[in-house]
Amino acid sequence: LSPDSPRLIAPRLLEVGSEKPVSCSLDGLFPAPEAGIYLELGDQRLNPYVTLEGDALMATATVTASAEQEGARQLVCTVTLGGESRETRENLTIYSFPAPLLNLSEPNAPEGKMVTVTCTAGARTLVTLEGIPAAVLGQPAQLQLNVTENDDRRGFFCEAILEVDGEILSKNESAELRVLYGPRLDDSDCPRSWTWPEGPEQTLRCEARGNPAPSVHCARPDGGARDKPRVSSVIWSFTSLYTVSCHHRTLGQGWGPAPSSSSLLLISSAQHGPPICPLTQLDPEGGRSGAFPRSVYQQSHAALPGEAK
To answer: Strand 49-53 vs strand 56-64: parallel, antiparallel, or unpaired?
Structure first.
């Protein structure tokens, strides 16, 4: 029997529920076919696959970690021949490390709602939420925020750190917050006043933002019974719960041709109540020349449920 010890190759750490290969070999055996080789994990004997090549003997096996084996264990390889034996031992630590849990008290929150974000993990784990660690091991990390439009699609990152036998292990989890807010229509997205030259057709483009995504609708206050303004098409940018009305009005000459024109923008929603933009008439120079009567609003929004007339 060779005076050398068997060469045992095995992982130092093994997570519960995972499996890894181990191998043990020894050469210089004579007669090699009469040698025996064994692998044990703690008090459990493994069932290795043994190969013989010349005077070398090798055993390979797969180690599967279970919760009952959690803790420090010894992996032992023993080679026997002619009443003699050689043995090698390696330490193997079996550990449990579940991924952290990241919870949002309300993943789809209305604007102005207080939302609590919580990151939790195992008893011996240190969790960090958005870069801020928990006070002690095993305790959750938490933050609260009063959500606004700017928090829509905001991501949160939770990291859990566990030290096992001198090695630092980490796992992480992420989540996204959705904020529900009513339609928004800014002058940059849809100017209140348009000035077009007489003659060529023009395209009226308006975009709105909101969650759920609002729809954009352009119409005349009278429902379109008169001559149409010189608008060739409308770009439909959004479709969902809200209605964004863009009222096009030619000042001074009703709905007929004119050297210039202006627009009135209304935002209304059956879910969020009456328009959040004032019903204001604009002159060609962009100044306010008075308010549209409420009857105009009622006429153009008669089909919307839930609004007071």
So the answer is: antiparallel
Structure tokens at 124: 């011996």
Q: Is the dihedral of CA 140, 141, 144, 150 positive or negative?
A: negative
Q: How far is CA 255 from the centre of its chain?
A: 49
Instruction: Provide the phi-psi class of 170: left if phi over 0, else alpha when psi is between -120 and 50, else beta.
Output: beta
Q: What is the CA radius of gyration of the chain?
A: 37
CATH topology identical between 7-95 and 101-181: yes
Q: Which residues contact 211 (CB under 8 A, 6 or more apart)?
A: 152, 178, 179, 180, 181
Q: Looking at residue 203, what is its pLDDT?
A: 73
**3-state DSSP call for residue 151?**
helix
- Condensed to tens digits (0 to 9), the pLDDT of residues 249-262 reads 333 333 223 222 23
CA distances from 216 to 32, 155, 235 (A): 84, 28, 8
34 and 72 in contact (C-beta within 8 Å)? no
CA dist 303 to 229, 231, 243, 300, Å?
Answer: 22, 24, 11, 8
Q: Does domain 7-95 have CATH number 3.90.550.10?
A: no
> Strands across the sheet with 84-95, in order?
13-15, 84-95, 71-81, 36-41, 44-45
Whole-prediction pTM: 0.65
Write down the domain spans for the chain. 7-95, 101-181, 185-300
Banded pLDDT at 139 (limits 50, 70, 90): very high
Does the structural domain 101-181 have CATH classification 2.60.40.10?
yes
* pLDDT, tens digit (0-9, with 9 covering 90-100), for 200-220: 777 777 788 889 888 777 666
Which residues touch 199 (CB under 8 Å, ≥6 apart)?
none
